[in-house]
Each structure stands twice: as structure tokens, then as C-alpha cells.
């Protein structure tokens, strides 16, 4: 299974929130560089299977109009 990055952050707490949000929507999530946040320019990479990437990006970009 090929994973692709759908979100990148330098903030570990932010990474955990994104992981949780995706997992609660039944996405398979892979997190890279979780232990190497400090001292890496790549940051924490949140990845999903290639076939789920577009749907995951839509979910992450969605903003509830009732809660802007």
C-alpha cells in the first residue's frame, strides 16, 4: 500500500489532532517523523493510502459554516 502525505506540521499536538480527525472518519493513517519533530525541517507528515488522499484532503479543508 502506497501512502501519500496529506498534511505536514511542525507541531506534534496539531499532528495528533489531524490523525484523530482522520481516524474518526475511518481513514487509515500513517504518521512519519513523529519522534523527530525537533531538529527536522520536514516536520510531522500525516499520510493516508494513495486512493484515500483526495477524500482526506477534502475532509481536512472542510470548515463548518456554523463554526467558522
What does this structure look like?
32% of the residues lie in helices and 24% in strands. It is an alpha+beta fold. A three-stranded antiparallel sheet has the order 1-3-2.
Q: What string, H for helix and E for strand, traces the elements in order?
A: EHEEH
Instruction: Report helical residue fraction.
Output: 25-40%
Write down the Rg. 12 Å
Taking all residues together, what is the mean pLDDT?
86
Largest sheet: 3 strands, antiparallel
Note the quaternary state here. Answer: single chain
Structural class: alpha+beta
Overall strand count: 3
Strand content: 15-25%
Give the low-pLDDT segments.
none
Strand order of the largest sheet: 1-3-2
Q: Quick one: overall form?
A: globular
Our measurement of the CA-to-CA distance between the termini, rounded to an integer number of angstroms, reads 35 Å
Count of DSSP H/I helices: 2
What key attributes describe this structure?
three-stranded antiparallel sheet, 68 residues, alpha+beta, 2 helices, globular
Amino acid at each position: 500500500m502506497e501512502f501519500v502525505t496529506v498534511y505536514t506540521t511542525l507541531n506534534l499536538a496539531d499532528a495528533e489532532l489531524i490523525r484523530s480527525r482522520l481516524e474518526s472518519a475511518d481513514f487509515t493513517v500513517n504518521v512519519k517523523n513523529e519522534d523527530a519533530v525537533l531538529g527536522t525541517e520536514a516536520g510531522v507528515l500525516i499520510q493516508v493510502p494513495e486512493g484515500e488522499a483526495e477524500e482526506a484532503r477534502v475532509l481536512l479543508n472542510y470548515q463548518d459554516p456554523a463554526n467558522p
